[in-house]
Amino acid sequence: MKIKSICCLGAGYVGGPTMAMIANKCPDIQVTVCDMNQARIDAWNSNTLPVYEPGLREIVESCRGKNLHFTTDLKPAIAAADLIFVCVGTPTKSYGIGAGRAADLRYIESAARLIAEVSHGNKIIVEKSTIPVKTATAIQRIIAANNSTDATFQVLSNPEFLAEGTAVADMENPDRILIGGEQTPEGQAALNALVSVYANWVPREKIITTNLWSSELSKLVANAFLAQRISSINSISALCEATGADVNEVARAIGSDSRIGPKFLKASVGFGGSCFQKDILNLVYLCESFNLPQVADYWRSVVEINDWQKSRFVEKIVRTLFNTVSGKRIAILGFAFKKDTNDTRESAAIHVIRDLLTENAHVAVYDPRVTQETMHRDLLEAGVSQHSLDTNFEIVASPYAAAENAHALATLTEWDEFRDLDLTRLYDLMLKPAFVFDGRAILPAEALAKHGFEAFIIGKG
Ligand code: NAD
Ligand code: UGA
């Protein structure tokens, strides 16, 4: 089966960029990205895309209106497609059974019902959203129970491994593409059809095919292993601070062992992003459901260390500033969960700023990409009061504006521009003693000391 028309449900951080890449690499395939969120679709059709990713705009602009389309008209797009990617959100469930751990599959279910309602002929449904193992069975059952037409369906799992900020490069040259399918002739035919789409630009040896459950589970496990490395190095960062060791030196020393490898060993104020915590909690819930409490506890500790790291950072600021930050201006550099994205979901900055506002600090934030609307929304959702935002929270246009009359400055996102700050200017602007809390270990320790700052760098004793 040759794929000529693709539809994607969900125009978010995954749906938009992945479909733009497919459209770009496969000019013979018509790709339609659908979402019921009109504002998001309007933004994809405008000059200001809803997702900031280096290189994304160029790709979208080269295909949009040719073989890449964005629409809220879901039904005709599904009906016309040979293959439907499901890229809807799978957030942590906030209510009922499994609240706080299990994945909320309501968007997956609504997508499956809609597909069943409007489809005719043979369709391939591809789970690209990150989901618990066995979700493919749930999708198959929902479709079978709601399919009143002549349509037949194959469900594939094709998890996405892109990281935000490097999405275009990751998709252009992926470490691997993973596709899971049923071990039947029809399942393998569907799997081969999707392999052919990726084979337009990904070498065949990088396309891994497995059974459905291995593919679904591998996505959760990949994120759990990546996050585990960060919590491991962050746990060691506390020991380094206590002993005089330097976590960057330790990371370099252990990462040079080819069995360990150098990546994902950067100590930080804590990992953020929409997925690590959610996916580990999802894995924890799965383990509990399969009566594996020891395994669940093991993975839960990765999230616990991450929460501890964020609290520890705030405690360090409060203790260092003579046990009170009340009424003190604290400059915060960075609000995004990592550099080169405007995404703030689960950003460590939200936790740190909320806790500083609880201590009655006056917080002045600079981030090159995150809007005021997003910061306000995130902080209100995190429990900050409107009064606190109105009186103690300020968004400024540069790191220097944030530093003006500040008692302390904290880096929470590793934006490149923070590495080249004019330390003399910064120091002159701040109250003395001028404290720096480098939550990303990106500032030069010796230069900070030379300029007169009292600096705390995460993981440096
Ligand atoms: P997102 O919230 O940015 O986008 C999801 C979109 O789906 C929303 O715009 C929503 O309106 C839309 N939607 C919900 N139900 C729909 C329906 N029935 N039909 C059409 N649209 C619908 O989420 P995201 O960051 O793109 O993540 C999507 C999935 O991909 C999640 O499962 C996530 O875990 C996974 N994932 C995300 C990343 C990442 O970097 N963000 C990377 C890999 C995997
Ligand atoms: C992560 C994975 O890297 C992707 O493979 C996966 O597809 C994605 O989650 C997902 O499923 O959503 P992402 O969250 O976009 O991607 O970004 P990462 O580069 O993994 O960074 C996550 C967080 O960890 C950031 O806050 C980052 O600053 C932090 N981090 C990363 C560290 O603190 N130290 C490190 O060494 C690396």
Describe this structure in words.
This protein has 461 residues and is an alpha/beta fold. Helix content is 45%, strand content 14%. The chain has 18 helices and 14 strands. It has helices at 15-25, 38-44, 56-63, 74-80, 106-118, 135-146, 167-172, 185-198, 212-243, 247-255, 276-289, 293-320, 348-358, 372-381, 386-392, 399-403, 423-429, 445-450; strands at 5-9, 30-34, 68-71, 83-86, 122-127, 152-157, 177-181, 207-211, 329-333, 362-366, 393-395, 408-411, 435-438, 454-457. Strands 3-2-1-4-5-6 form a six-stranded parallel sheet, sandwiched between helices. Strands 11-10-9-12-13-14 form a six-stranded parallel sheet. Helix 1 (15-25) crosses helix 3 and helix 12 (293-320) crosses helix 13 (348-358). It is elongated, with a radius of gyration of 24 Å. It starts with a strand and ends with a strand. The model has no long low-confidence stretch (mean pLDDT 96). The structure holds nicotinamide-adenine-dinucleotide and uridine-5'-diphosphate-glucuronic acid (UGA). Uridine-5'-diphosphate-glucuronic acid is lined by residues 130, 160-164, 223, 226, 230, 264-266, 268, 271-273, 275-276, 337-338.
| Rounded radius of gyration (Å) | 24 Å
Number of discrete helical segments: 18
Distinct ligands, ions and cofactors found in the model: nicotinamide-adenine-dinucleotide, uridine-5'-diphosphate-glucuronic acid
Oligomer: single chain
Number of strands: 14
Summarize model confidence as the mean pLDDT. Answer: 96
- From the helix content, strand content and strand pairing, which structural class follows? alpha/beta
